[in-house]
Design brief:
Number of helices: 10
CATH class of the largest domain: Alpha Beta
Shape: elongated
Number of domains: 2
CATH topology of the largest domain: Rossmann fold
Strand content: 15-25%
Structural class: alpha/beta
Helix content: 25-40%
Length: 318
């Protein structure tokens, strides 16, 4: 039995962000297919973002009804987790008929992810609670409980107002709330390798920043086009430091496990937690540097750590 969202005071259903804990693949496909078929029956647009293998199995089980469903592979959309919210935003904005209800399934957190990727996916799940004003959107986020740690499951309960487990849907008793989840992200970052030096920069030093990143990436054996992307992204974040971060900043760059990582620190504060995750408006200034960095890099981590912002840009060496 699956309960439904209680109506708000104005009579509309809540935006429903729900974690689905499944114990095996049979439970996953049974619940996912029921969710999809309910959407098809209600003529509700639905976008499913999963692995290629799960999409293929769902298509085969839908027996020709998959034409009513939009699919996207998480390996494409969510390789950088900051790209997932824009995908949902495009989906919602592409179906603008008044009164339309929407559904979605997205599984960004899977076994075997690096600690940095996992942390960014968990931040993504937290920000989903504030990203969308549409009250008619039901988003189901599967978690493979057979392989996830207790810490990952506990965080899922903290970042989702609703839980679906053991065949029942219910409110999460440990949901932190949008106000808490939208606060600046202060989770600590692992220290860089020993010997990494800091390059301090101020107005007029961006050329030195670009040269330092280029030199580090060349030594790592990175291809030219990826070097260019990393240099542009670092230049954008360093420019933000000059404009909004106290007029100066510091850069550290190193190689780690097949990645080239550039870290920019300054004295600024990112006030909008969705900066870099929603397309910047043409009517507003700001937000473009972090958005561009997310488009160019494989992974971007932002933290609010004393005395200000820390942004780490990750680019795969290969």
């Amino acid at each position: 039995m699956m309960d439904v969202a209680a109506p708000q005071a104005d009579g509309r259903a809540h935006y429903r962000h729900e974690a689905f804990l499944y114990a095996n693949q049979d439970e996953f496909f049974d619940t996912a297919l029921r969710f999809i078929l309910d959407a098809i029956a209600a003529d509700e647009p639905i976008l499913v973002i999963l692995s290629a293998e799960k999409i293929s199995e769902i298509r085969s089980r839908l027996n020709g009804r998959s034409r009513a469903v939009l699919f996207a592979e998480m390996s494409d959309i969510g390789d950088n987790p900051a790209h997932i919210i824009p995908a949902w935003d495009d989906f919602l904005n592409g179906n603008t008929a008044p009164g339309t209800s929407f559904r979605g399934i997205g599984e960004p957190i899977v076994a075997g992810q690096s600690p940095a990727k996992l942390a960014e996916c968990q931040r993504h799940e937290a920000l989903l609670n504030i990203a969308f004003a549409n009250p008619e959107f039901w988003l189901l986020c599967p978690y493979d409980a057979s392989v996830m740690s207790n810490e990952v499951i506990d965080e899922a309960r903290r970042t989702h107002p609703f839980m679906n487990e053991n065949g029942f849907s219910h409110s999460s008793s440990t949901f932190a709330g949008p106000e808490v989840l939208s606060e600046p992200y202060r989770a600590p970052l692992p220290d860089p390798p020993e010997g990494v030096v800091s390059l301090w920069f101020q107005e007029g030093d961006l050329g030195d920043v670009r040269e330092h990143v280029t030199s580090r990436a060349v030594r790592a054996g990175m291809k030219r086009d990826r070097i260019d992307d990393l240099v542009v992204a670092t230049n954008e974040i360093a420019t933000n430091s000059l404009r909004y971060g106290g007029g100066r900043g510091s850069l550290r760059a190193w190689e780690e496990a097949g990645w080239v990582i550039c870290e920019i620190s300054d004295d600024g504060v990112i006030e909008d937690p969705l900066t870099g995750r929603l397309r910047p408006s043409i009517h507003k200034s700001g937000g473009r540097g972090l958005w561009l960095a997310n488009q160019l890099c494989d992974l971007v981590l932002t933290r609010a750590l004393p005395p200000g912002n820390v942004t780490r840009l990750h680019m795969r060496r290969g």
